Amino acid sequence: MSFDRRDFFRAALAAGGAGTATLLAAEPEPAKEETAEPNHVGCLVDTTLCIGCRQCESACNTRNKLPKSTINFADRTIFRSERRPSETAFTVVNEFPGSPSPDQGNVKETFVKVQCMHCLTPSCVSACIVGALTKASDGSIVYNPDICLGCRYCQVSCPFEIPAYEFDEPLTPRVRKCEFCTDRQKGIGANPACAASCPTEALVFGKRAELIHLARDRMAKRPDRYTETIYGEKEVGGTSWLYLTGRPYTEVGLLKLQETAPALRTEAIQHGIFKYGFFPIAFYGLLSGIMWFNNRKENPDSGHGPSDSHTSQASAQDGKGGRS
Ligand code: SF4
Ligand code: SF4
Ligand code: SF4
User: Fold this and answer.
1) How many CA atoms lie within 13 A of 65 on its CB side?
2) Does the C-beta of 63 come closer than 6 Å to ligand 2?
3) What angle do CA 133, 136, 142 make, to 5 degrees?
4) 165 strand-pairing partners
5) Torsion of the alpha carbons at 186, 189, 195 and 200, rounded to the nearest 10
6) Residue 123 Cβ contacting ligand 1 at under 6 Å
7) Residue 117 contacts by C-beta under 8 Å, 6 or more apart in sequence?
8) Is 19 helix (H, G, I), strand (E, B) or coil?
């Protein structure tokens, strides 16, 4: 039986009017930290090999049929500001001053690709109360727009600030993010488009467990080149995208995060809400009301509710370049 947005709101109204007992009867199971299965895929980003050509961005744009950028992919002025993935660019490459590693001291900048990390214990999946975001059998985190409510819990919950929302789409706005090129499972190319397009093999797609071996191997052979951390091996309980860096990862835009998956904490709160008799959408509405009231108090002339930080996400597309 399908369960769409209209059905959900109908159920929510029923719950509000006639009591929440039915919907609250089944309290969800407590969250468990998940580990990578042997068949889980991943991608290793070796930032010491990335030349900032942005062919990965271009390939992602084409593969996902995203709107064509007004800025050419070869225009390197794009690196002047740090960008985040958006609803029109599922991946972006940022530039940081300084060489990628001690043995590349003659290189003046480090490039780092950003996209959904495909967390092993994904907060977005945990936060989605209707199951619009799910974890596929290979570990990819995928999205079903047909049952999405547009509540944007997933945006709030993501520790990497990845899910973007189509605010400009009035009728059927979707949450957009990298889905790890799920069409590769249907035989449209074995690799994600970004990894297939990378000219320097800075992106290596494969089984996550094998990628961790590959990363350790590179670190052992070139200790002068790499730090001792595989970013994503443990952060937020582990992610399918992994990074090798030649400098401390915090210097190249990667966030310092706890090893515990935040999904475990947010689910505990959400389950508490269920347990004490609040239907989450009512709770979310209450929170929104409080935010709106506070915003009115702080900005009495604005006439608007709370601003949404995600609306200011830089739309982040464009083309390719190349380190000279
Ligand atoms: S990075 Fe964010 S959007 Fe991607 S799987 Fe993790 S929690 Fe979900
Ligand atoms: S895996 Fe696919 S959707 Fe994700 S960043 Fe790469 S090309 Fe884009
Ligand atoms: S295609 Fe490869 S080298 Fe070029 S920007 Fe992307 S990750 Fe870096």
Assistant:
1) 1
2) yes
3) 35
4) 175
5) 170
6) yes
7) 160, 162, 232, 236, 239, 240, 241
8) coil
Residue 49 CB: number of other CB atoms within 10 A?
A: 21
Nearest to 143 by CA among 163, 170, 123: 163
35-278 sits in which CATH class? alpha beta
Distance 106 CA to ligand 1 centre (A): 35
Q: Which of 178, 188, 191, 317 has the most ligand 2 atoms within 8 A of CB, as the residue to mutate?
A: 178
At 24, list the tokens.
């609250």
Q: Domain coordinates of the chain in residue numbers?
A: 35-278
Instruction: Please answer whether residues 149 and 129 qualify as being in contact, where contact means their C-beta atoms are separated by less than 8 angstroms.
Output: yes
Which tens digit of pLDDT belongs to each residue from 210-268?
Answer: 999 999 999 999 999 999 999 999 999 999 999 999 999 999 999 999 999 987 766 66
The values of phi and psi at residue 198, to 5°, are: -70, 120
Distance CA 283, CA 305 (A): 17
* Range 114-147 burial, b when 16+ CB lie within 10 A, else e: bbbbbbbbbbbbbbbbbebbebeebbbbbbeeeb
The residue whose C-alpha atom lies closest to atom 3 belonging to ligand 2 is: 178
Single pTM value for the model: 0.79
